[in-house]
Write a structure and sequence with these properties.
The radius of gyration is 22 Å and the shape is globular. By secondary structure, the chain is mainly α. 83% of the residues lie in helices and 0% in strands. Helix 8 runs parallel beside helix 15, helix 13 packs parallel to helix 16 and helix 14 runs parallel beside helix 16.
């Protein structure tokens, strides 16, 4: 979360210096590189975290084998990169300097072969404070280098070179930390090899489809609505993506425990309760304060368009929190294959809806499609979770957070216009927890956990 705050500070810089069109090009490069990064990950880190934490395989054996597999995957992705940034460059509406930057971004993924696998074994050892510290270090370094190249006029190519330098440093640090803190000489009970690709394949497909159904609009917007519309959407997306870090960080932190627990239903219910208690006030607060937030992050150039997009886009947040947690509950139970059909349905819906709505409604259509896609994904996810963790009622868990948010929202709305957005935010931060506790949303188990956090 600290890294995301620093990243938001960098967004304040590049959103202003690149302008709407430049931000649209940058967003395309980032999203396309993220899909390529998914290829390198191939779902293997979740497999490493699950199997090493169970003792099924040794960390040393997993580290060696997974690095070799990922190196081969990087070579597999190279022809696709050369095709997109070469003959297909005009289809994506990319200028030549953006294409060169895209190639450098892909070269910058090569050091992540090492850093990803090191992160996986540290995840299995539940040493996430180490990977979080390195994430902050990498974000600071990327921000400093990125701001330097932008102020010197090096543009997208400079940003790509900054990413390459940052990834090299990050890989070396994580490799050293994993060697000292998480890798021992034990080989484990199971061999590691190509057979892991077969086990990881459903995870990779799920991860790829998840990324596509949520980010394919960033790839389609430049060609269907222009770079300026893509830039408007990117500014709003940056804020909504930052709000999603709470769920992803929490879910990744508890995943090794989910993989070992004997009572998955109770664990799922507690995690779902906590995430929903955060998601609803956060989503409503961002929607009400969307204009001052976008003005702070992107500047007046992005108003009111990005604020409109953010108000719509942030509605996805509670749905995303539920879907993200449910996904890892199913993976922990070894039921990752149940996810594939759900992601496929959501992806097809997303692509068809984006092609239908973006040419007519631009970034507004893209934002509504994102929200609807999460809703489409929720239905099969909840059906699958009901078989793994029966007795967890989503309607029961949302009742108290929704009521407390409805009590908070009018006050925040009034104070936003009557005083200052910061005062409105602080008031919401006081009113919501009081309302939640008064409505009985915080049970005795949560109170005990909160006391343990205050007094370990």
């Amino acid at each position: 979360m600290v890294a995301r705050v620093i990243d938001a500070a960098f967004a304040v810089v590049y959103l202003r210096l690149l302008g709407r069109a430049g931000v649209g090009e940058f967003q395309f490069l980032v999203v396309f590189t993220t899909f390529l990064d998914t290829l390198l990950d191939f779902g293997l880190n979740a497999l490493v975290a699950r199997e090493v934490s169970r003792g099924s395989v040794g960390a040393a054996a997993a580290f060696r084998a997974i690095n070799l597999i990922r190196l081969a995957l990087w070579l597999v992705g190279l022809p696709m990169v050369l095709l997109v940034y070469g003959p297909l460059r005009s289809v994506a509406n990319l200028p030549s300097d953006a294409a060169v930057a895209g190639l450098v971004f892909y070269v910058a993924l090569l050091p992540t072969v090492l850093s990803k696998t090191a992160t996986g074994v540290l995840w299995a050892a539940e040493r996430l404070e180490l990977t979080a510290s390195v994430s902050v270090l990498a974000t600071v370094l990327r921000t400093v280098l990125g701001a330097a190249v932008l102020f010197t006029g090096l543009g997208l190519i400079g940003l790509a070179e900054a990413s390459l330098a940052t990834n090299v440093v990050t890989a070396l640090v994580l490799w050293r930390l994993a060697a000292v803190r998480a890798i021992d000489a034990s080989e484990g009970a199971r061999p590691v090899g190509i057979v892991w690709l077969r086990e990881a394949w459903p995870l990779f497909v799920n991860q790829l489809l998840q990324g596509l159904f949520f980010k394919v609009d960033a790839l389609l917007l430049p060609g269907l609505a222009g770079d300026a519309a893509a830039g408007v959407y990117a500014a709003a997306y940056k804020v909504s993506e930052g709000a999603g870090i709470v769920s992803s960080s929490f879910t990744l932190a508890i995943f090794p425990r989910l993989s070992r627990t004997s009572d998955l239903t109770s664990a799922y219910r507690m995690a779902l309760t906590i995430l929903l208690q955060v998601a609803f006030p956060l989503a409503v607060g961002i929607a009400i304060l969307s204009e001052p937030i976008v003005g702070l992050v992107g500047g007046r150039e992005y108003l009111p368009d990005s604020a409109i997009a953010l108000t719509i886009l942030i509605c996805y947040l509670p749905l995303s929190y539920v879907n993200g947690l449910t996904q890892y509950v199913l993976i922990a139970a070894g039921k990752q294959r149940l996810l594939t059909s759900a992601f496929a349905i959501a992806f097809v819906f997303n692509v068809v809806a984006n092609f239908a709505l973006i040419p007519r409604y631009g970034y507004v259509g893209a934002a509504w499609v994102t929200v609807a896609s999460e809703l489409v994904l929720l239905v099969p996810f909840r059906a699958a979770a009901a078989r793994i963790a029966p007795g967890v009622s989503l309607l029961k868990e949302v009742r108290a957070p929704v009521l407390a948010t409805l009590l908070m929202a009018p006050v925040v709305w009034w104070l936003r216009d009557a005083t200052h957005p910061l005062i409105a935010m602080l008031a919401g931060g006081v009113i919501y927890p009081l309302a939640l506790m008064t409505l009985g949303g915080v049970d005795h188990i949560q109170r005990r956990l909160l006391l343990q956090l205050v007094r370990p």
